[in-house]
Each structure stands twice: as structure tokens, then as C-alpha cells.
Amino acid sequence: MTEVITEFVNKNTIDIDIVSTLDMVKKMNDEDKIVARAVEYELENIAKAIDIIAKQFLLGGHLFYYGAGTSGRLGVLDASECTPTFNVPPDMVQGIIAGGYDALRAAVEGAEDDFAAGVADANVLTDKDVAVMISASGNPNYLMGVLARANEIGCKTIALTCNSKGRIVEEASHVICVEVGPEVIAGSSRLKAGTAQKMVLNMLSTGSMIKIGKTYKNFMIDLQANNEKLKDRAIRIVSQLADVQHSVAFTTLLKCGWNIKTAIVSLKLNVDKEEAEKELAKHRGVLRKVLGDF
User: Which candidate in 7, 81, 179, 275 is catalytic?
Assistant: First the structure.
């Protein structure tokens, strides 16, 4: 049977059930400190993955996260936040969990062992897409089914795991392996492994969106201003980047349908909404290119 390091007993926390509550959380915190360092060791592979995803986005492809249990839930979480943050279509980044959406709220017995379900869930993929397999152990048969179908059609595949000996490592075309060591509680991969996966997923989605022009500097210029908090943020972004008063930013955003980039281009180039939209379309929505700011 393949070794799974997250199943090993952690000698640092063997007495976690008898120490004081403060010492308990100190031990957990000490283990969490290992996670960021482990992610750091994989930065080169994470960067390569971001470039792969961004390239496929520009070809019209999509990003799919696949996982079971905690890993699947983390993928669905990251995917669901891309539309409001970067104003991309909901199908551009999708999270698919073994067992379907019922598995988001409760465990679905045997879902991670279902090879055929993985194949079926991968039928949405095309050769323009990227499929990221998320798994602490790297061994679910469900993910092997996804990989079998993805590789068959030429879809780009990335393994995100915490186990270098996992089976998905052998089948994926690119691998990110964040080895965080044995868990605080043996086998509970929602802890260090889950934290590591969340950190990497943050980088994959955010990094690929940055690469295709969904930010300007470190501003969320493509956010959906669909509530008062986000409208206030949009006003502040336009005010700061276009160097105008808040009242001018507000008025321009109203004219531009609360589209931040359109409002900035309108103000910076002194053009109306329609002309601003044409300039953005000409440069594939990349604000730096429209403004000639490199």
C-alpha cells in the first residue's frame, strides 16, 4: 500500500490530549508554521502552474478543481470566489467535488473511491482546459478517473498534493507537492494539508488572474460592485487610480455601469463610456496596455 505521510503519527503532538489548552494551541500553531515554509519550497512549481493556467485562459480555456472531502471543498470555495473578485464568468473557474454538491455539507461514503465517477465528472473538460487534482494523499481513485479522461483528451493536468508518493503524481503533467509532514491529529488532513492547499489555491487563482490583466497594480479593478461595501471600494479605487475626487469617481462609475476599468479609462483618456469600452476591447481588457503604463 502506498505510504501516506499525513497518516503518520506526529511525535510533536503525541501528548496533545493531556497538555493545557494553551499548550495545545501552541503545538498546533508550531505545526502551522511548517506549512508556509513547505509552500515556499514549491514556489517554482506553483509559478509554472500559474503560467500554464493563464495561457489556457487566453486560449479560451477554463480552470477546473477536482477533489474529494476537504480537498474538494477547498476547490469549490476557491472557484466560487473568482467571479465576484475578478468579474469572470462563473464557468471560467469551477470546483467539482467527488459525490457532488451533497458532499459539500456532509461526507458521501465511497465517493473518493469511485473511478467511474471521476471519468464522468471529467467529461466537461476540453483540450483547452486545465484540471487541478487536489488531494493530501494523492491516491483517490476518483481523481485517477479524472486524470484518465483528462489525459485522453489532452487537457492540461496539475496535481496538488502533500504526498510525493501519491498516484496522481505519476499521472499528472505538472506537480505541486507541499510536504507538510504528519498532521497534528494523525490522518486529519483538513489541518496542515488543508491549510497548505488553501494557500496554493489562493496563488493559482489570483496569480493566473493577475497574469491575464484582472488587476492593475494590486487593485481589484474587475470586482463586481454589487453591494454597498463593494461600491464604496470601487469609488475609492477609481478616485485613487484616476486621481479624482470621490464625487467625480462616483458620477463616472454611474455612467459606466459601475465598471471600474471603463470608468478609469474614461477619466484618464477623457473619453465617453463607449470609447472607453472600445479601447479596453482593443487591448483585451488589460488596463496597463490601454494606459500605456509599463
Answer: 81
